[in-house]
Specification:
single chain; globular; 4-stranded parallel β-sheet; alpha/beta
């Protein structure tokens, strides 16, 4: 099944002739960039948005991956935090983030002669609450993976087939997703979370989140790793490190890691309204 979808994906880029890729360095946009470059060569350009919500380590990885693929790669600064609608962290925060991104990419694409701006939205993303998708569509962006029906699992399968070293890379949404809706997002808070997650990464962990609520850091790990983490980690040292980053309290989520967990508040709100 994925082989046929890959053919259709390549055909889509042949039709485009030239494309600018909104490239975050995640597995989805990396696959899009890889296929675009394989088809278009120097008629494909990857652009990574740089802002306080992007971990420096993730930016470095994105640059390394682009170099490995051979695609032309540039950085642009985005300033979503300057928009009070974004900083207030409403439930549609991602709409304002993607608005800022594509308001910068679209003029750049037209100036450079790229008729299309494409992103890494896959078919599964269309089933989730993703207000940023609307903002991208309003600005003419296309989502090749979604257009040909490629799921997240198929993204990884195709990426492995194409030899991408990041084929099994865990999802790493922007740092703003670590805050409950309604809590104001600031550069200082983003940096605090970023330092905490970088600390866990240096410990050798691959899948994790540091959720930030007020002055509390809540660590999420895969459920099967929680026991070993507690038994083998020097907890006082970890707590001390997190406190040096600016947190007062450090907790461990006993349920374990779950992508999009903070969206549960939207489900509860919907149930209460219908009830």
């Amino acid at each position: 099944m994925w082989q046929e979808k890959l053919k259709r994906l390549k055909a889509l880029f042949i039709e485009m002739e030239r494309a600018l890729i909104a490239y975050s360095g995640g597995i989805d946009s990396t696959l899009v960039a890889k296929v675009a470059f394989d088809v278009l060569g120097d008629r494909a350009l990857a652009i990574t948005a740089v802002s306080p919500s992007l971990l420096p380590e993730d930016l470095e990885e994105a640059c390394i991956q682009a170099a490995e693929m051979g695609i032309a790669h540039e950085l642009v600064e985005t300033h979503e935090l300057e928009n009070p609608n974004y900083a207030a962290n409403p439930v549609n925060r991602c709409y304002f983030c993607k608005s800022e991104l594509h308001d910068r990419l679209r003029p750049l694409a037209l100036e450079r002669g790229y008729p299309y701006v494409v992103d890494g939205i896959n078919a599964d993303d269309l089933k989730d609450y993703r207000p940023g998708i609307q903002a991208a569509k309003e600005r003419g962006a296309r989502s090749p993976l979604a257009e040909v029906g490629i799921s997240k699992a198929e993204v990884r399968e195709i990426a492995r087939h194409l030899g991408l070293s990041c084929w099994d890379k865990p999802a790493q949404p922007c740092l703003s997703s670590r805050f409950p809706y309604g809590e104001e997002i600031t550069v200082a808070k983003l940096q605090r979370v970023g330092r905490a997650e970088a600390y866990l990464r240096r410990m050798g962990l691959r899948t994790y989140r540091v959720r930030s609520e007020g002055d509390t850091a809540r660590i999420e790990l895969p459920p099967e790793q929680i026991k070993e983490f507690v038994l083998t980690t020097d907890l006082p040292t970890l707590v001390s490190a997190f406190q040096s980053f600016g947190f007062l309290y450090v907790t461990l989520d006993l349920e374990g890691f779950s992508s999009g967990k903070l969206n549960r508040v939207l489900q509860f709100a919907s149930v209460n309204q219908t009830g």
